[in-house]
Specification:
59% of the residues lie in helices and 1% in strands. The protein has 357 residues and is an all-alpha fold. It is elongated and about 165 Å long. Keywords: Coiled coil.
């Protein structure tokens, strides 16, 4: 391939340099008059006296000279413009000639290459070479792909085995930890079982002892005649049919009163008495518990235990904590209840006690 670059002719370059040099025409400054010390004083005085008139004349002369110089420069520039236009036309012709020469050279080179192609085996040979090259590339690609596939499969199998090994180690470690935990909890369970078995045995012994004491107390009450048993076993009776205060009743304790003498009838705890229960601190809650267990709120005994009626030994006994004996000897129904369900012993924060005088 040919390299082509446009070069300005020597005459054009010469004209351009001359034009650049001539731009400074008519720009000389007027020479200032200078007096030396060796000139006569008379001449210096005369010059000083006429300085104003001379200065005006000099300015006018200088302006006229500059105008004349400018006119000359303009005329000379017009000449240079004409010369440049001529040189430009010459350069255009030179450029056209160079382009025509280049086109001829390219045409000749292309013709030579076509001639070389004609001398070869032709297009069929070129196609065969391309097909052979494509077959070689295809075979190499297939071999490379197969090799990569085998390598990828091998890497994948190695990763799977590594993952299996890692997780098997974690599983074995978890099994060991679980065995330790199970062994520890088994030991703790045996300790707790032994402890609770001991506590149950201790409570059973205490309960049997208390039951024996209650039974002895009951027998003493029966022997003394203070406790009489009706034909309906389990119910105690009070002989007189008149209302009395609980403090004056002197009624022997019932079975339920003896049973819950040292533990709470409401929450069944042995840490406090029924009257001091904080779990069921409101007297209405306590009455609800007794009703839910089907107990009498006066004597605490279970009701309807296969009987037609319940004979309450405290049926005519009013609570002395919240009631005063009336003049007519009759109490209201709300006064007939056991002291442990009395509002006077309410342990709640909303406790309100009304005293009757």
């Amino acid at each position: 391939m040919f390299n082509f670059s446009f070069r300005m002719s020597d005459s054009s370059q010469s004209v351009q340099k001359s034009f650049e040099k001539s731009i400074g025409f008519g720009e000389k400054e007027p020479k200032e008059e200078v007096f030396t010390d060796d000139e006569p004083a008379r001449k210096r005085s005369k010059t000083t006296g006429n300085s104003e008139n001379f200065q005006d004349t000099s300015v006018i002369s200088e302006i006229s000279k500059k105008l004349e110089d400018s006119k000359n420069v303009i005329e000379e520039m017009e000449l240079w413009v004409k010369k440049l236009e001529k040189l430009h036309d010459e350069d255009i012709d030179s450029l056209k000639k160079s382009m025509n020469d280049l086109a001829g050279n390219l045409k000749q080179e292309f013709a030579e290459k076509l001639e070389k192609i004609d001398k070869t085996d032709g297009i069929d040979s070129l196609k065969k070479s391309i097909n052979d090259l494509a077959g070689i590339l295809r075979q190499e690609f297939t071999e490379k792909a197969e090799e990569d596939r085998e390598k990828l499969k091998q890497d994948f199998d190695e990763k799977i085995e590594e993952i299996k090994k890692t997780y098997q180690e974690k599983i074995d470690k978890c099994d060991q930890e679980n065995a330790k935990i199970e062994k520890f909890h088994q030991g703790e369970f045996q300790k707790m079982k032994k402890y609770y078995k001991y506590q149950i045995s201790k409570l059973q012994t205490a309960h049997e002892k208390k039951s024996e004491e209650f039974e002895n107390f009951r027998k003493e009450m029966e022997i003394s005649g203070k406790l009489s048993t009706s034909h309906d076993a389990g119910d105690t009776l009070y002989g007189e049919k008149s209302f009395v205060m609980s403090d004056d009743a002197k009624i022997p304790p019932t079975k339920s009163e003896l049973e819950f003498l040292f533990k709470c009838i409401f929450c069944k705890s042995e840490d406090h008495k029924s009257i001091d229960c904080r779990v069921f601190d409101d007297f209405t809650k306590r009455q609800s518990i007794l009703k839910r267990e089907n107990r009498c709120i006066r004597c605490l005994e279970p009701q309807n235990m296969g009987k037609l009626i319940h004979i309450c030994p405290r049926a005519l006994v009013a609570c002395s904590d919240c009631s005063w004996f009336p003049i007519d000897g009759r109490f209201d129904e709300s006064d007939l209840h056991h002291p442990i369900v009395c509002r006077f012993h309410d342990q709640s924060s909303n406790r309100e006690v009304d005293f009757v005088y």
